[in-house]
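Appendix B, record 7
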Amino acid sequence: MRSFQIGLQAAMLLAAPGLLWASEHLDGDEALKQTVSLEGLSGISLVFAQAYNQSPWLYAVFCTATMAVVGVGIAILADMILRVMGLQVGKIEHKE
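Structure tokens (predicted):
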């Protein structure tokens, strides 16, 4: 197990310069100034596109919150489907 960890760390150290070299084709300023066209967008798509163009941090918060809400919705739906199928859902008691 120890040799696997050492090999993995060595591979990451050897791969890092290659990853940095691959990103050199863009200037720092050019990479940060990418925007999304707002033409033809409306509703929630427009809100997300404007957030992306104005503040990447706000866009990241929107995306994270959206993923959390969708995840909770999927969990509730899966819970209801499993209960209809007759399976017991809830916390599992672990005995040691």
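Remarks on this record: DSSP finds four helices and no strands in the chain. The two ends are 27 Å apart (CA to CA).
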